[in-house]
Design brief:
Blueprint: E1 8-12, H1 17-28, E2 32-37, H2 40-49, E3 54-58, H3 64-78, E4 83-86, H4 101-129, E5 132-137, H5 150-170, E6 175-182, H6 196-205, H7 214-225, E7 236-239
Parallel strand pairs: 1-2, 1-4, 2-3, 4-5, 5-6, 6-7
Length: 256
Amino acid sequence: MGRFDTTVAFVTGASTGIGRATALRLANEGASVVAAARSQDRLLELEAEGAGRITARTLNVGDTGALRAAIAETAETRGRLDILVNCAGISRLDPILDLDERHWHEILATNLTAAFVAAQEAARHMAAGGGGAIVNVASIDAFAADSPAVHYCVSKAGMIAMTRSFAHELGHLGIRTNAVAPGLTATPMTMDDSWNHITAAYQERIPLRRPSTPEEQAAVICFLASGDASYVNGETVIADGGLLSGMWYDPADAPN
């Protein structure tokens, strides 16, 4: 018996990285998963790997009407919706003094507004069904600036505030809302050659001396979505290998 037998989950940003690992983990533990993202080819590969437990749904979360419709259809055709994982997100590097207002709105629309719309729509169906679990994928950039990306940092900080509000307002309906704040994670983007200098600098400061894998973040997400976390509500789990635990670390002082 899997932790998620008989449950229905909807995962955004599921075509790659943490979202993909989460969809697979949920499916492997028994959930029926609707995996949503923009890349149809990657989603179809994921669907094939899901052994009949993953359904691909090509979707741009920025189209909030289509996002609401996809979640409503999932709940209506499957008779329930138990889990929502908000993992869709984009980032840009834009210095504050050069930041175009269009890019500000683009990041906030995808990372925060779409997450709210998905959570609101999912919560309506969860309330009708007696409860459920929402897990928002934020970032440690909600707690410490990662420059030049003010719009990304703000979007993730807003997601954590949203998590608390949903938890406080909807808990009595049996809906738990939590978040995970990943640190550096080995996704296709961060492992790209153009990120080598950034990844190396981060790893020097991470106490565990390595990035996380998407599967490690998925494990935290699935814990928060499961009955194992039945009394956890409104929390943000920081999964960063200890990066935020200290300020400055000089490698020259490392013990042998």
